[in-house]
Structures are given as structure tokens and as C-alpha cells.
Amino acid sequence: MTPDQLKSITVRTSPPLVPEISVAGIPHHQTFESFRAQRHDIIGAATPYWVVAWPGGQGLARFLLDTPQLVSQRRVVDLGCGNGLVAIAAAMAGARSVVAIDVDPNALVCAQDNACFNKVDIKTTRCDLRSFKPDPGDLVCAGDLWYEQPTGRLATACLSQLPNAQCSILFCDAGRSYRPRSDVTCLKTYGLSVSPEFESSSELSLRICTLNAANIHSMHTGHVPHV
Q: Which CATH superfamily, name and number, covers 53-221?
């Protein structure tokens, strides 16, 4: 898929939790499945997760915009970036540099196009969870990676190794069955009304969390935690 093809099959939309960011989305007259079927000639066989602003990505993007001190002068990695929403938020919040990573090349086209539309600079890299290698000091962000068992387990295994690489981790717990459950500290919670097309509930509680965070200051102190 090329950027021009992307523009020809999507419309601009602003996710409810991050209205200051515009992303490419499904035209209003189409469902996710009809978009996938009717645009197969352009997008290919891979599921176009990148055309939806998933709740976990929205929650994590909102958190980065609300706490820019967490990303200031840091390299931020958006792991499984999809449409690049979290990467764009990190860049807008003042990150030194931002890398958006996904295994789907169409996602990288979408993320880069969205970044250009929002007038921020990001780098895109094709990589899967098994081969991902961060740099020491990175802030690694994962939005909505726990939607199915194989990917969810792989994502949890990947993130669990990152503190040993001297990285910090932020992820959004959107209540998925395969999310991380141990060594988790919740930093913030957002509520979001969602479409019944994708979710079993009309309202989701989005918990912004970190892993292995024994040295994070309590939110009850009134201070933003150091991640």
C-alpha cells in the first residue's frame, strides 16, 4: 500500500480520547469487515488493524499528552504501532525521538502518513515482537497488543524482558484476557465509550500501567511518577 492508496480508501478522524490528533480511519458507511473485504486489492491479506484507533492506543496516547515530562528528551518506542497514535502523541509531548514499530508494512505507511498530517517526525521500522531489541533508556509503549492469545502472550513475554535491558515500559490494560497480570502498577485510569462492533461492553476502563515498577512513586503523593 502506498500513501496515495491509503488516502484514497480512508477518511480523517479524531479519536475521542485524543481529539487533538487526526488519524486515517474507516469511511463512515463501512464496517471493519466490509472495509477489509472491499479493499483487499490494496491492503492484501493481513488484517488492517491500523485503520482503527483501538482503546488501548487511545488511553496510552492520552496519558503521554497529559504527562509530557515522562517523555521529554527520551527516545520513545511505540511497539505494535498500528496507526501510530501513541508514537504521534509521544512526539507531540516532546520526546527526543520516536520509533514506531510494527510487523505489518501497511501499518507503517499509515503511521508515517498520520505523523506527517499531524506535523510531527517519527521513524518507522518493520519488526516483530520476537526480534525487537530496544536501546538502554528507551521508554517502550504498548497500546492494544492483547486482543488474541498468541500475540498477547508474545507481547507479555517481550515486555517482561525489557526492564533487564534498562528500559521503561508503559502499556494500556483495556481489560483484554491475555494482558500482563503480575508486577504491574497502575498509574492512571481513563473511561472510554466504545463501539459494539469491536467490544463486548459499551464502556471500557483503560488502565495505564508499567511493569516491574517498585521504585515508582505513588500517585497518591500528587507527583507524576518517574518511569
A: Vaccinia Virus protein VP39 (3.40.50.150)
Integer Cα distance of 100 and 114 in angstroms: 12
Tell me what the mean pLDDT of segment 211-222 comes to: 40
Task: Please give the Cα distance from 216 to 7 (Å, whole number).
Answer: 42
Instruction: Give Cβ neighbours of residue 182 (< 8 Å, ≥ 6 apart).
Output: none
CA angle 51–128–210, rounded 5-degree value: 80
Q: Which three cell numbers stand for residue 101?
A: 514499530
Residue 1 pLDDT > 90: yes
- Residue ranges of domains in the chain: 53-221
At 184, the pLDDT band (50, 70, 90 cuts) reads confident
* Stated pTM of the model: 0.87
